[in-house]
Amino acid sequence: MIMNVQAYLAPVAEKLEKISPRWWRVLRLTHLRRARSDPNTIAAAIVFYVLICIGPLALLAAWSLQLILGPGTDSYEWLRNSVHRFAGEAAGSIMDQVDALVTNPGAHVAGIFSALVLIWAGLRLFESLEITLTEIWPGLKERGIIARKLTALVTMLGAGALFLVSILLTAFLPVVLDWLDRMTAVRLGEILFLQPGLIFAVELAVVFAAFFLLFKFMPVQDVPSKVAAVGALFTTIVWRAATPIFTHTVARSGENSAVYGGLAGIVMFMTWAYFGTQILLLGAHLTAAYEHVAVLQRPEEEDDHFIHMRQETPAARSERKRDEPEPSRGPQGSPSPGHA
């Protein structure tokens, strides 16, 4: 059966290679490098920290919106809708728990605990992302432990700010449309159909900005803005294409509740976070491959070296240097001709 599949895919691959040899080479390098990087283990580790972060992040975001907009606003509903758009139906049960925490009389205690948990898990999450993205790009450079912690902290704060901005933008769209209705000759009924499209555009812009910032600044290597933009565009398209498919699957799978009971929502969210991380890693590998092929214009003879190139940790580097034989010395203490 495997041979039949390979025989069927071979002519398809040949046609794709003829249509765009450059992009076929980029996709091939992306697939081969990703297969060597053990993405399943990396994604599982990141999902652990995502699961710990989502509850405290949503709780603190709800309180932040109430501080900005006032306690009488629909901040929780805006937050729930934003989480639903980014994570689909899988985040519904988690948001129900956040709603219970927000209305809890002892919520201030939960808020302090949430902040501590979010700082710990968020730093670990973005530190893991920094290490992973640095290893995807070729090179031996790496950040020190303090620089890595600071990078993770800045990225965590930036991600939270970007999430709040996306909520505020989508929440104020009806206000903007109402202002246009009152202050201009444009009637609200004539432009109301634009609201879903504008919300979708804001969502795409936020997702694109998040991927761009990750690919541009998280690796220690200097990634050109054009390269990061291409990778962010590809990853955004794949993300948006996968979200409705996964949401539809979750909505139609009634067996999950029978198997997992009350944990069904958490299991579905972890599954979505796992595949979302896989999409992120796929986009990062494609970004590095695109830089190798289209920007640096490396010859095909260097593709094998690029595929097998991985980040060398300081421990591995010191061990390799320790195992290397000492160069032989000549009579005057200088290296012999073979080592000159």
Total domain count: 1
* Mean of all residue-level pLDDT scores: 76
Q: Share of helix among residues?
A: over 70%
Number of strands: 0
C-alpha termini separation: 56 Å
Q: Radius of gyration, Cα only, in angstroms?
A: 25 Å
Structural class of the secondary elements? mainly alpha
Strand content: under 5%
Structure summarized in a few sentences:
This protein has 340 residues and is mainly alpha-helical. It has 14 helices and no strands. It is globular and about 65 Å long.
Please tell me about this protein's structure.
This protein has helices spanning about 1-20, 20-35, 40-70, 75-85, 90-100, 105-135, 145-185, 190, 195-215, 225-250, 255-260, 265-295, 305-310, 315-325. It is mainly α and about 350 residues long. It has one domain. The termini are far apart. Mean pLDDT is about 75; it is low at about 310-315 and about 335-340.
Please write out the topology.
Layout: H1 2-19, H2 21-36, H3 39-69, H4 75-87, H5 92-102, H6 107-136, H7 145-183, H8 188-191, H9 194-217, H10 225-252, H11 255-260, H12 264-295, H13 303-308, H14 314-323
Helix pairs in contact: 1-2, 2-12, 3-4, 3-5, 3-6, 3-12, 6-7, 7-9, 9-10, 10-12
Which short descriptors sum up this protein?
single chain, 340 residues
